[in-house]
Structure formats: C-alpha cells, structure tokens
Amino acid sequence: MTASPSCIFCQFARNSTTTTTLLHTDEKVVAFQDINPSAFRHYLVIPVEHIATIKDLRRRNEDYSLVSHMLNVGQTLLHRDAPNSTHYRFGFHQPPFNSVNHLHLHCLALPYVSRWKTVKYTSLGPLGGFIEARKVLEKLKP
Predict the structure, then answer these.
(1) Is-above-0.85 flag for pTM?
(2) Among this protein's residues, is 106 annotated catalytic?
(3) Which of 42, 82, 85, 97 would bridge 37 by S-S if both were Cys, CB 3.0 to 4.6 A apart?
C-alpha cells in the first residue's frame, strides 16, 4: 500500500509536518507523542507504509515482523523515557474503535491520566475494543 494524501499519519511518517516531533524514525516506522495523552507517557508507533487497521494484517512474516518491530520501538522509548513506571501497555484499537485509519500502536506508561481513560484501553472481547500487541503477534505468527 502507498501513502494516502489525506491521512494525517502518512504526513507524519513522511515528516511533511513541522508540528510533530518524531521520537524515533527508521525505514519501517516512526514514533511520536499522542496529541491527547491517556497516560503518564503515551506514544504512538506507526508504519511508514499506509496500512489502514489491524484488520489489514495477515499471518505472514512481513506483518509479524512489522508489528514486532513496532512493539520493540515502543518498549525502548518507554523504558528510556519512563523508567520508573511499574506498568506499561502496548496495543491497538480495533475497528470501529480506532480513531485514525492508519495502523498505530499505543504505547502507554501508566498511570492513566484519569479513570475514564482506562475504559478506552479495555478489550471488549468479540466486539473489538483494545487488543494487546502480544495477542496481535500471536495471531500473525506464520
């Protein structure tokens, strides 16, 4: 898939905006702080390539490798920037609960900024909601 001109995250990935500070960038992903943080530290890791949602990922080496890399980048950033946090969460919102149609991993160093934010990062089982990155990796493992 190629970049979507109307996708704000595609613009971030191609560094065509000056308002977002990138915390990490490489050939596969970029990371930045969430504009409306839900936790003490809240980063997003997105692929440079436009992939709409986790529903577009398949059980194949390239998708498994991408999500694994996204998780590694998020873990590295949070352990660097929030080393004293006792709990971290890493995961994706599933459609229709995703806010932007560009795959993005939420990387959270807790505590949440409010109790309400906890609800936003809860699994709703078969209805979707938030899914932990490790569970996504289990589903994608070739």
Answers:
(1) yes
(2) yes
(3) 42
Confidence at residue 106, expressed as pLDDT on a 0 to 100 scale: 97
Q: Which of 93, 102, 104, 106 is flagged as catalytic?
A: 106
CATH number at residue 87: 3.30.428.10
Question: Is residue 21 assigned to a domain?
Answer: yes
* Per-residue three-class SS string for 71-94: HHHHHHHHHHHCCCCCCEEEEEEC
CB 45 within 8 Å of CB 31: yes
Sequence-separated (6 or more) residues with CB below 8 Å from residue 14: 3, 48
Give me the number of domains the chain comprises: 1
- Please, are residues 68 and 142 in contact by the beta-carbon 8 Å criterion? no
In angstroms, rounded to a whole number, what is the distance separating the alpha carbons of residues 124 and 88? 19
